[in-house]
Amino acid sequence: MKRMLSGIKPSGQLTLGNYIGALREFVKYQNDYEMIVFIANLHTLTVYQDPKELSQNLKDTIALYLACGLDPNRSTIFMQSDVMEHAQLGFILSCNTYMGELNRMTQYKDKLAKGEESMTSGFYVYPTLMASDILIYDPDFVPVGEDQKQHVELTRDVAMRFNNRYGETFKIPQPLIPKIGARIMSLSDPTKKMSKSDEQDKGCIYLLDKPEVARKKVMSAITDLVGKVQYDPINQPGIANLLVIHSALSGRSIENLVKEFEGQGYGTFKKAVADEVVKLLIDLQAKYNDILNQHILDKVLAQGAVKARVLAHQKLKLVETKIGLTID
Ligand code: ATP
Ligand code: LTN
Question: Which of 114, 149, 171, 193 is catalytic?
Answer without folding.
Answer: 193
